[in-house]
Amino acid sequence: KQSRKIDGDKVDLAEQSLLNKLIRHSLVRNRNQVEVLQRDPTSPLYSVKTFEELRLKPDLLKGVYNMGFNRPSRIQENALPMMLAQPPQNLIAQSQSGTGKTAAFSLAMLSHVNPANKWTQCLCIAPTYELALQIGQVIEQMGKYCPDVKLAYGIRGNRMERGIKLQEQIVIGTPGTVLDWCTKYRLIEPKKITMFVLDEADVMIATQGHRDQSIRIHRQLTKDCQMLLFSATFEDSVWRFAEQVVPDPNIIRLKREEETLDTIKQFYVVCKEKEDKFTALCNLYGSLTIAQAMIFCHTRKMAAWLTANLTKEGHQVALLSGEMTVEQRASVIERYRNGKEKVLVTTNVCSRGIDVEQVSLVVNFDLPVDMDGNADNETYLHRIGRTGRFGRRGFAVNMVDSKHSMDIINQIEMHFNRRITKLDTSDLEEMESLMS
Ligand SMILES: Nc1ncnc2c1ncn2[C@@H]1O[C@H](COP(=O)(O)OP(=O)(O)OP(=O)(O)O)[C@@H](O)[C@H]1O
Ligand SMILES: [Mg+2]
């Protein structure tokens, strides 16, 4: 039934199913390990406290347990008391990918609002449409037992009547639309906002487009509006800038060697050109049937090329890139979340924040580079962080097709001081031993 063409090579089905078993086994075993990790002081999921001890309102506690959370992660345990303190305190917080930052600030917003007040009190902005949507879904789930707290989505395509004032206590959105809602449409009274959250805060304040809009929103808020900044990465220059923008912040910062997760194994494959990368990818994909995979390309054009070729080979592939309509984007990500497609080919639009538990493989079909062609370490960390969510195991595979891209791998290795292991995708035995 599941015949697979792997560029002429007939891969022995018995070998393949053995590999699948190994991978499936490691995924399942890992799920049971979350609780173990939460008691290991070296793990970012570690906590000494329980959710009860964090003094959440009973309705919120119910929401948390309803999501299947048993214990807070380290960032949740550390950040929640700071965010809920009176008088309010600002916070700049860094925590590894997939360690539960969303729940941390969602709980803070849900605790913070006064449901009796029918106006917007908390504003949360994130860099992409998909991410804002996802955060909103988490807030809705978490706030399931707080029926009086309402949420509005300040994202493209969500048209609102001009002149009315929103009654929703929480607005989550992307900077452009939220700015319009504050200024052009006046749906929100910025002076009444008492909590301002920036997810993926480093891109929100460092990349030009987002930065201008975020700053324009920020300028309209009162000076004692509480500010909460979250990300898995903060470049040094961004830290300095953040500390200038945010008065007297509490700071939760990782050491460089703590930024990457042990649970994500990193590899590179040496290829000649894009056709060769494609073959390597098919080999990998063929071996990882049960996994969901995310494949990153540098350009929309490359993403489209890759999608077309994978589809030609008979693979079920979804493509998500920035130029699609919001309806298309929403439906692609929803289908992928539900496992309708096992593979998502994308550009950097999906590099940050997207949380799909079953993703066990991330492929950098093109390596992340900045405008000068140097390694983009932050984007790299976010991309590989789409796998290995909350203690799960994951694999990241980088396609290297030139001396330049080998240099980039070396730069990334040096930056995080983490080994990236060479992988030969035509050697099934080697793959089996390395990826078990
Ligand atoms: N205390 C908890 N117990 C169990 N699972 C949790 C807990 N907190 C969060 N999770 C789960 O962990 C996953 C990752 O969480 P989240 O998306 O908030 O990570 P993140 O820190 O924002 O990562 P990124 O830097 O990639 O955005 C989610 O699926 C979430 O449901
Ligand atoms: Mg996140």
TrEMBL record:
It comes from Dicentrarchus labrax (European seabass). It catalyses: ATP + H2O = ADP + phosphate + H(+). SUPFAM superfamilies: P-loop containing nucleoside triphosphate hydrolases (SSF52540). Residues 263-434 form the Helicase C-terminal domain. Keywords: ATP-binding, Cytoplasm, Helicase, Hydrolase, Nucleotide-binding, Nucleus, RNA-binding. Residues 82-252 form the Helicase ATP-binding domain. It is found in: Cytoplasm; Nucleus. PANTHER family: ATP-DEPENDENT RNA HELICASE DBP3. Its EC number is 3.6.4.13. This is RNA helicase.
